[in-house]
Each structure stands twice: as structure tokens, then as C-alpha cells.
Amino acid sequence: MHITKKIQKAERRFDTRAEWFLWHHPVLGYLFVLIGMPLLVLLCVCAGALLLIMPLSGPLGYF
Q: pTM of the entire structure?
């Protein structure tokens, strides 16, 4: 099985599970979509910026 087929299969499985969760737990799903996902994106952006900046801070004298 090619890597693209595996990715598509995993995506379909995730979509199915996410849809089931949202149908059975609408309040939790609503909170996750409106609060959890933006926080997750912000955390990923901060972690990415930190990973880019930390190696540069030593040679530049900031750390």
C-alpha cells in the first residue's frame, strides 16, 4: 500500500470518528472546535517559533 493510500485511509478513519463524537457529544464538540482548536494552533505556532529562535539565541548572545 502506498503512503498516499495510508494517509487517505487514516484521514477517513479520523473523519468518521470525529463525526461520531460530534453527533454523540455536541456540547463537548462545540467547545473543542471553538476553544480547543485555536489553543492548539497557538501552541503549535509558539513551539515552532521557539524551535526556530532558540538555536539562534546562543550564538547571538541572548541566551
A: 0.61
